[in-house]
Design brief:
The chain is of the alpha/beta class. It has 12 helices and 15 strands.
């Protein structure tokens, strides 16, 4: 009879070497939990000071968030990568929000959408989430105080601007206070093996973004449109036989659909940028953007006159988009992002000068760069 350890079971010599290391990890875990709760008790005091001051001090401050994460990165000397510690600290801050006052975050539903995934990646698991039916509902919820913050998709690296969201900024006074860059990865979700899948559901845009993979791996499967990728996951969860959905990892968790294949998108660099809207404007951090919208007279060189102002002040424009005004034919609104904060002297001077060339100019917000 052999004395060899069963497969997967370490031998006696290995167990003896592992035991003190695991004891050391357990002792460190105990210290970490104690330090985390000590930090949390300070957070409670911060909340008490904010409430006692009687001022409208925001629970979530994007400028403070950026400073904390930057400090963590500077303190990190490995071996853990920065992104690991950033994820830990984001959850710490999420728990801190809940200790001060539970935050409510509005996003474009249904649950499991990429907007939902972006919200969770930014605000963590300890806040409340409210799935809303459309972009105007998100702006309205934040403006009325029914939600503290809202997530609005602005542009996609593959498909360009999200025009419906841009239109809302024209009508709302709620400012942009932060941004998120979310890599968009599509996953095949199903409870049956690949060879049994006969129907694939997802949003038409998502199906198009995975066309090459589907053609190679499921050439005979029908592709059926759903209102969203999360709705597709819901359909498959309710009717799992011979069907699959393409959706997010969050949809996989919510609808209990295993990920058969991950990252099946044709373009692995596909990214969506989200704006976070709120009722307060963050302070300058030194690494900021300012978003604005303007309209000009309908004459030759009018747009160039405005753009030259920013050039002459040495300000870099990171985005320029246009939308019809919907009030008059051939009248357009121009949306610009520039590097810098509206409170910085050079940016303020440029905005003041640019207004002289515009029929209307509105600053949508200044916020830390993602």
């Amino acid at each position: 009879m052999s004395d060899a350890a069963p497969p997967g079971d370490p031998g006696e010599a290995t167990r003896e070497k592992l035991a003190p290391l695991r004891d050391e990890i357990d002792a460190l875990d105990e210290k970490i939990v104690g330090l985390l709760n000590a930090r949390a008790r300070v957070v409670v005091k911060v909340g008490e000071v904010k409430r006692a001051g009687g001022e409208d001090v925001p629970i979530y401050a994007p400028d403070r968030e950026q400073a904390v994460l930057e400090k963590v990165r500077k303190l990190n000397h490995g071996p853990l990568p920065d992104r690991c510690l950033e994820a830990v600290w984001r959850e710490l801050m999420s728990g801190s929000f809940a200790l001060e006052r539970p935050l409510r975050i509005g996003y474009l539903g249904p649950a499991g959408s990429f907007s939902h995934l972006a919200a969770v990646s930014k605000f963590g698991q300890s806040v409340e989430y409210d799935e809303l039916s459309d972009f105007p509902a998100i702006f309205d919820a934040v403006a009325r105080g029914h939600a503290d913050y809202g997530l609005i998709p602005i542009e996609n690296s593959t498909h360009g601007g999200v025009t419906a969201s841009l239109d809302c900024f024209l009508e709302s006074g709620v400012p942009v206070c932060a941004e998120i860059l979310l890599p968009i990865h599509h996953n095949l979700l199903s409870r049956v093996p690949l060879e049994r899948i006969k129907t694939v559901y997802s949003h038409p845009q998502v199906l198009g973004q995975c066309q090459r993979w589907l053609t190679a791996q499921l050439p005979h499967a029908k592709r059926l449109d759903a209102a969203s990728s999360s709705q597709a996951a819901r359909i498959v969860a309710e009717n799992p036989s011979e069907s699959a959905a393409i959706g997010s990892t969050l949809a996989s968790q919510l609808y209990r659909l295993p990920v058969l294949f991950d990252n099946i998108e044709d373009n692995p660099n596909n990214t969506t940028r989200f704006s976070i809207i709120g009722r307060q404007s963050p302070r300058p951090t030194g690494e900021d953007k300012t978003a604005l919208v303007f309209t000009t007279e309908h004459r030759a060189g009018a747009l160039t006159d405005v753009l030259n102002v920013f050039r002459d002040h040495g300000l870099n424009l990171t985005r320029l988009a246009e939308r019809p005004s919907q009030r008059m034919n051939w009248e357009y609104y121009f949306f610009i992002d520039l590097l810098g904060h509206a409170e910085e002297p050079e940016v303020k001077a440029a905005l003041d000068e640019a207004r002289g060339h515009c029929l209307q100019l509105k600053v949508l917000g200044s916020f830390p760069r993602a």
